[in-house]
């Protein structure tokens, strides 16, 4: 497949690029600073842009089979960036008639497991309060996707870890894995690539965790 990855220098984004190349896909990595991208490969195209407008992004998505995005705030002071940048990507996709998009959100934005205990509910409440502005941004981003008319999937991980790819994680379409408190960035990337051609995840939020 021909894939475009936004947020390609982030923890999940670089893993998506690395694993996609390893699987034989052609990858366009969209970055602001190419020096921050450590991945290389014959089938890799590095596309530099600051995502200031959709017109500058259109060449990066034209003719692609799917777009995968790890765009988002790195801290509370960046809240709002996920919605703004995702809107730019969606506008470019619409102009180029590209439909498939997978985006990273966060577990607290979606539903909690029905069997969540008091500890999980308490931790979720504290984290949601501390990162309220970030999660408000991610909810707005998800609303943009839902209105976009694209074949979208939102991937909602819990606390992220830097761990080697295991391929051993749980996913729940429309929900979240019971007692799923952590997941590695490499496994989130693996899940996103697996969902790219999974019709069962279209227009769905998918919880992913160990």
Output the keywords.
single chain; 210 residues; alpha/beta; Rossmann fold
Summarize the structure in words.
The protein has 210 residues and is α/β, with parallel strands linked by helices. The chain has a single domain, classed as NAD(P)-binding Rossmann-like Domain (Rossmann fold). It is 37% helix and 22% strand. It contains 6 helices and 10 strands; from the N terminus they run βαββαβαβααββββαβ. It has helices at residues 11-22, 54-61, 81-96, 118-130, 132-148, 185-195, and strands at 2-6, 26-31, 44-48, 66-69, 100-104, 151-156, 159-161, 170-173, 182-184, 204-209. An 8-stranded mixed sheet has the order 3-2-1-4-5-6-10-8, sandwiched between helices. α3 links the parallel β4 (66-69) and β5 (100-104). The mean pLDDT is 91.
The radius of gyration is 16 Å
Strand content: 15-25%
Give the N-to-C terminal Cα separation: 28 Å
The stretches of 5 or more residues where confidence is low (pLDDT under 50) are none
The secondary-structure class comes to alpha/beta
What is the tally of beta strands?
A: 10
Number of helices: 6
| CATH architecture field | 3-Layer(aba) Sandwich
Number of domains: 1
Succession of helices and strands? EHEEHEHEHHEEEEHE
Task: Map the helices and strands.
Blueprint: E1 2-6, H1 11-22, E2 26-31, E3 44-48, H2 54-61, E4 66-69, H3 81-96, E5 100-104, H4 118-130, H5 132-148, E6 151-156, E7 159-161, E8 170-173, E9 182-184, H6 185-195, E10 204-209
Parallel strand pairs: 1-2, 1-4, 2-3, 4-5, 5-6, 6-10, 7-9
Antiparallel strand pairs: 8-10
């Amino acid at each position: 497949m021909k894939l475009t990855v936004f947020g390609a220098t982030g923890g999940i984004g670089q893993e998506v690029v690395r694993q996609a190349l390893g699987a034989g896909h052609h990858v366009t990595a969209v970055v602001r600073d190419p020096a921050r991208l450590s991945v290389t490969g014959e089938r890799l195209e590095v596309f530099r842009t600051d995502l200031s407008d959709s017109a500058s992004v259109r060449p990066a998505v034209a003719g692609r089979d799917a777009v995968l995005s790890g765009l988002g705030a790195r801290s509370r002071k960046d809240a709002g960036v996920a919605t703004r940048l995702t809107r730019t990507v969606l506008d470019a996709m619409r102009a180029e008639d590209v439909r498939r998009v997978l985006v990273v959100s966060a577990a607290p934005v979606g539903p909690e497991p029905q069997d969540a205990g008091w500890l999980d509910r308490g931790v979720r409440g504290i984290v949601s309060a501390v990162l309220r502005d970030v999660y408000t941004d991610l909810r707005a981003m998800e609303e943009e996707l839902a209105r976009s008319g694209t074949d979208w999937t939102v991937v909602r991980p819990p606390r992220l870890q830097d761990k080697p790819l295991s391929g051993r994680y749980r996913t729940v379409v429309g929900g979240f894995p019971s007692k799923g408190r952590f997941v590695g960035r490499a496994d989130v990337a693996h899940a996103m690539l697996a969902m790219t051609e999974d019709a069962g995840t279209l227009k769905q939020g998918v919880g992913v965790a160990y």
